[in-house]
């Protein structure tokens, strides 16, 4: 469905009918009866609208999306599928998924959704997911509130470089690609570097510093958010998910290493 | 079913038949053949009698209701649905649920149940759940024995203000509403404050100090009980459950922070 | 089936036929074609032969019966149902269950099984389970290798009374009955005391010291085994299972308290 | 299917057709239409192609094969079934399994697979699994990235003998066999010794040092890999799996003991 600016549609919140120009202004949200529900209905278990709930259920058991925190988004060509805000992640259903067209999101203040679930709110993570899709060509982006990620950012606060998590000489580092538009994976002796950005009161305000971190560390597949969690992406759902798992593994290991007095960086060649 | 004081019914414990006036005195419990079983029978998965067992099963896997400890209650208008005492929480069934009318519980010493499971005992948590319903208009109240909650109360014992858990500058704090009859959620920089009351030998004797804590902290959605656990409520099942998850996340984080020498309060603006 | 001493049956191990007197000598084990398989076949989910596999599957997820360690036994009047040795506990089936008659186990060296699974070995825990059944009238006994139990016994090694785990003023203590042939549960202020016995190379050799500990602490529902695990029993399956859960909760809490410098005993009245 | 050197088959990677001699050179991989799919299709739940996915799903929940790390292989007489590289282990299917003939793997540089999944890569663990099969007659070999294993190898780095994990006087040690071609299990007082080898950038390069460790400790059923994980094997799937569980239990216990200042070796006789 392409939305024409001449169309009149019902606003999601006020339930009144407005012109597209007013809806595009972002004050109102369309809920026309034809809400493009076909975009989230598929018998294919690998369809993004089916995959996101399945992934979120798994993430809930891992403690990544506790108390409706965190989220996930999948990009399929120009369509972006997004978990909504405030939903119990282990109970999410395909009909809870938002859909938007990536190429039409010129102004982040005026987000247009091809498909909006009738009684939900879009996630504040949306602009951060979109940054991973547009700046890195990611196919999937995951945001967790994992306690291991939060603890790593807290432990870094007292270190000389508080804005960079570094670890090397751990096999699981090989679970990460070398970086944007590069072939192959990191090696065992390579140092994995994950930048840390400061948290902000409103999650969408993280976007700018996330993009700055992406520019400074063009090959990173993740950005830690202090006292908040982590954003992890990958070219495919498979890569985003397995890189997120590997990273959480390394964060947990790093916290345990700290408890046992073991350094994160070592000098093995 | 409305119970008339002229009715004669069988006592649950002594199996003899008594007048309602004697049953209302609280010495006996009715088990008349018409036990209002229809109140706990529904094909709707969102019916309180179906939701409570489902929630308790989930809570068991989280370690919140180990060894029959803890419990949960849902209020639907004037009807209150309660998990029974002493049942393995992961095995609970809809027919194990107690039901009472909130408006008829004038004297807590004379609890009248619209529906009592034949061979179970009502939970000692009942008066505490009722306090959340009557004083805060809660729609659901959860009681956990989470070890993280217990450890937080133990760690507080040696602190200057041992009756208040405080944490700030953690994203998950945004999982809590601002408070009773207030709109919106706490912010990232806000300090979450959860009062702690001392445990008593009989759980029902906690009611008075729980109510005092509610009066002193009118906006809290939870009260910690020293060396025991936590009571968490919310306007809806969704809010009570997700606030309970967020709180348990913060308790666990707080314990891990203590192990790593990290303070619960920080001075970030 | 009552086994008569005049019967001739096939030995389980050597596959030759022997008189009952030789089989009773314990050197051989009967595997007659009529192996009383009906004793472990039931459509009732509460039948011991169905309950033991279900419990063991749950215990496996709790880390209590890792690597075939641990076990469980249920007594139904004079019949005792036992998990076998060396089976993956999460995969156990009703046909893996041993059955014996409690009243006929006069000589522990000559164990007679009413029903033996064809290709399994009886558990070395058998005499310890039987001690709980005969000396305490238990209806169920559970043996776990929980790491929390093992760590508690290790921590006790350097304490003045290394043979007694004591904890008080924790709500979960109320999950235990007052003791053998006593009514009611322990109170919040009561001190829970679990004796510790030293491990032996052969598990069956623990029987004597387990019985000594039972005599010294007649009201205990559990005995810790140093560097090994714990035996927990109860009048019913429900009580044994929930007491085992409560105890494991307290062991885990005790280990975490030790890490945080918090004492197990406190002086609250 | 026996592959004849005169056959021409399609290469897996370049999709062109080559003679067997070229395919055997290891540069190309066959993907002939008859890919021996019957080798991984069975209704028997105990068939290796069904067992490996089931085991890997279980291992994923245990945190052993996070982020596609780790793996498992089963030998059935001369056929070896292998989990592929880079697959989400909890989602693996029978059709993802590689099969090779053990007796035909003379040159490890020229690996011939009887069956290769069309779009997957063989695991770098293959030569290490094969070492367990050929040098120790193992029936199953498991490789985990368990954090407990990694932490144990990190803790050993500062010890006098950094290449050997030793623990004694823990009941779970009885979960291990005495060793290669020996009868019976280790005793409670025996010291379990697991050699540690240094990690290498390419996993297959571990093969030589793994074999050296096997020669030096002929009775070990496991080899730790520093900062990487552990390889565990056994005569059967049952033994490899339960030994791997027992070992992970001991690694976790060892890490907790270190946190609590408890020594791994003690002097109890």
UniProtKB/TrEMBL annotation, chains A, B, C, D:
<dbReference type="GO" id="GO:0008270">
    <property type="term" value="F:zinc ion binding"/>
</dbReference>
<keyword id="KW-0028">Amino-acid biosynthesis</keyword>
<dbReference type="InterPro" id="IPR001303">
    <property type="entry name" value="Aldolase_II/adducin_N"/>
</dbReference>
<dbReference type="InterPro" id="IPR027514">
    <property type="entry name" value="Salvage_MtnB_euk"/>
</dbReference>
<keyword id="KW-0486">Methionine biosynthesis</keyword>
<dbReference type="GO" id="GO:0005737">
    <property type="term" value="C:cytoplasm"/>
</dbReference>
<dbReference type="GO" id="GO:0019509">
    <property type="term" value="P:L-methionine salvage from methylthioadenosine"/>
</dbReference>
<keyword id="KW-0479">Metal-binding</keyword>
<dbReference type="Pfam" id="PF00596">
    <property type="entry name" value="Aldolase_II"/>
</dbReference>
<keyword id="KW-0456">Lyase</keyword>
<comment type="function">
    <text>Catalyzes the dehydration of methylthioribulose-1-phosphate (MTRu-1-P) into 2,3-diketo-5-methylthiopentyl-1-phosphate (DK-MTP-1-P).</text>
</comment>
<protein>
    <recommendedName>
        <fullName>Methylthioribulose-1-phosphate dehydratase</fullName>
        <ecNumber>4.2.1.109</ecNumber>
    </recommendedName>
</protein>
<feature type="active site" description="Proton donor/acceptor">
    <location>
        <position position="171"/>
    </location>
</feature>
<keyword id="KW-0963">Cytoplasm</keyword>
<keyword id="KW-0862">Zinc</keyword>
<feature type="binding site">
    <location>
        <position position="228"/>
    </location>
    <ligand>
        <name>Zn(2+)</name>
    </ligand>
</feature>
<dbReference type="InterPro" id="IPR017714">
    <property type="entry name" value="MethylthioRu-1-P_deHdtase_MtnB"/>
</dbReference>
<comment type="pathway">
    <text>Amino-acid biosynthesis; L-methionine biosynthesis via salvage pathway; L-methionine from S-methyl-5-thio-alpha-D-ribose 1-phosphate: step 2/6.</text>
</comment>
<dbReference type="GO" id="GO:0046570">
    <property type="term" value="F:methylthioribulose 1-phosphate dehydratase activity"/>
</dbReference>
<feature type="binding site">
    <location>
        <position position="145"/>
    </location>
    <ligand>
        <name>Zn(2+)</name>
    </ligand>
</feature>
<feature type="binding site">
    <location>
        <position position="143"/>
    </location>
    <ligand>
        <name>Zn(2+)</name>
    </ligand>
</feature>
<feature type="binding site">
    <location>
        <position position="125"/>
    </location>
    <ligand>
        <name>substrate</name>
    </ligand>
</feature>
<feature type="domain" description="Class II aldolase/adducin N-terminal">
    <location>
        <begin position="50"/>
        <end position="255"/>
    </location>
</feature>
<dbReference type="InterPro" id="IPR036409">
    <property type="entry name" value="Aldolase_II/adducin_N_sf"/>
</dbReference>
<comment type="similarity">
    <text>Belongs to the aldolase class II family. MtnB subfamily.</text>
</comment>
